[in-house]
């Protein structure tokens, strides 16, 4: 019988194998991952994995070596933001729920955000990526929209709260293929 870390690693390995080996047009492929690194606060200085929205949003044409990751207030970002001024020219961390992924992306875009990272609202989700798709409104969004595992989003927000910080400093996107394996610091609660 496998312990929790072993079972999570096995689930993730099987999931990656299915992604790499399956051929359906809608299936997630390994090359659709995007990586970002938290630079500050130091207790979560890890490289995180996210996935791009399937059929809406933009792409990263620029690499940001140091940009703020600002948790939206309210977290679901389904309407006017209390901290919208801080999201201007930064990246927003949003929580899933309350409205569509596209609606959240449009709210962040309207507040001048450069991208949005939408974390699952299931805080124990450490391995299942959700495919973010267009809603029925036929609206569009131009900024990149990424999906982040719930555990990762929770740990980032928790660290910011513990340190009394309004945002994290991140680099995005990060090219992990050019990094030596020993330099890739992954979150200890998640297995790649």
TrEMBL record:
<dbReference type="InterPro" id="IPR037323">
    <property type="entry name" value="PRADC1-like_PA"/>
</dbReference>
<keyword id="KW-0964">Secreted</keyword>
<feature type="signal peptide">
    <location>
        <begin position="1"/>
        <end position="27"/>
    </location>
</feature>
<comment type="function">
    <text>Plays a role in the modulation of physical activity and adiposity.</text>
</comment>
<dbReference type="InterPro" id="IPR003137">
    <property type="entry name" value="PA_domain"/>
</dbReference>
<dbReference type="Pfam" id="PF02225">
    <property type="entry name" value="PA"/>
</dbReference>
<protein>
    <recommendedName>
        <fullName>Protease-associated domain-containing protein 1</fullName>
    </recommendedName>
</protein>
<dbReference type="InterPro" id="IPR046450">
    <property type="entry name" value="PA_dom_sf"/>
</dbReference>
<keyword id="KW-0732">Signal</keyword>
<feature type="domain" description="PA">
    <location>
        <begin position="69"/>
        <end position="153"/>
    </location>
</feature>
<dbReference type="GO" id="GO:0005576">
    <property type="term" value="C:extracellular region"/>
</dbReference>
<keyword id="KW-0325">Glycoprotein</keyword>
């Amino acid at each position: 019988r496998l312990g929790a870390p072993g079972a999570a690693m096995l689930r993730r390995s099987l999931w990656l194998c299915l992604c790499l080996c399956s051929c359906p047009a809608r299936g997630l492929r390994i090359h659709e991952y995007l990586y970002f690194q938290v630079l500050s606060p130091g207790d979560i200085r890890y490289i995180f994995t996210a996935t791009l929205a399937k059929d809406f949003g933009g792409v990263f044409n620029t690499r940001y070596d140091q940009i703020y990751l600002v948790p939206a207030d309210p977290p679901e970002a389904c309407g006017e933001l209390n901290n919208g001024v801080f999201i201007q020219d930064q990246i927003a961390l949003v929580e899933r729920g309350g409205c569509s992924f596209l609606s959240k992306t449009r709210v962040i875009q309207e507040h001048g955000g450069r991208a949005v990272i939408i974390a699952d609202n299931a805080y124990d989700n450490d391995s299942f990526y959700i495919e973010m798709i267009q809603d029925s409104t036929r609206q569009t969004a131009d900024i990149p929209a990424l999906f982040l595992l719930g555990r990762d989003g929770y740990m980032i927000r928790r660290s910011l709260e513990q340190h009394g910080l309004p945002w994290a400093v991140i680099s995005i996107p990060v090219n992990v293929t050019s990094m030596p394996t020993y330099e890739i610091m992954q979150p200890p609660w998640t297995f790649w």
